[in-house]
Amino acid sequence: MEYTVQKLASLASISTRTLRYYDEIGILKPARINSSGYRIYGQAEVNKLQQILFYRELGVNLENIKEIVTSPSFEAGKALKEHREKLLEKRQQLDLLIANVEKTIALTEGRITMSDKEKFEGFKKNMIDENEKKYGKEIREKYGKETVEKSNAKLMNMTQEEYDEATALAEELHLTLAEAFKTGDPAGEVAQKAAELHKKWLLHYWTEYSKEAHAGLAQMYVDDERFTAYYDKEQPGTAAFLRDAIHIYTGMKK
Hints:
Blueprint: E1 3-4, H1 5-12, H2 16-24, E2 32-33, E3 39-41, H3 43-57, H4 62-69, H5 76-108, H6 116-119, H7 121-143, H8 145-156, H9 160-183, H10 189-202, H11 211-223, H12 225-232, H13 238-250
Antiparallel strand pairs: 1-3, 2-3
Helix pairs in contact: 1-2, 3-4, 3-5, 5-7, 7-8, 9-10, 10-13, 11-12, 11-13
């Protein structure tokens, strides 16, 4: 079956403007243009649009979606299985949050008791899922699947007191790093205090610590533009400064 822009947009519950934009950026071209100048989409385009919308639902940006679906090595069947796994994970997260809300309602009505740990399980799972979406592939390649899984398990088992301590450490690190950056000396006392705070913060999430891994993470803050943007958002150069301070702290840079 073939579809015009209007009919396919209606079928997929998206706007005609979206389909035209997908054509413009080359992510979804029509099968042909008819004699009246209308875009015509066939079954292959319908299937590709479904894949695009799956990826959009999972939060993948259009640039990455285009790279995926236009790749010669793209396999629709394999992609569908991956979509299923991701959606099941998403459903699990939503089920956990819904259960958390229901428990909290029951708690406020006096029908049950609820530990502090239970109150935050859904949110910690959400934090893990967000990190997986952004950095999962890279950190597994860098540190190994087992290390990442242990770190995630440690976060899920974290008590509210430990979580509050990690949050407070992150804030103290932020303030200390800003103060240290003003000195311009990554080997200075304040900068080394920031490096020490960074280590303490990491230990709330890492199951084991090594100077090499700490220094490697600091280097990634500079090499990965996402981390650099986070640390440099208030003062450009902060990510590199923190990297240098940590390299000195760990002995990787004299």
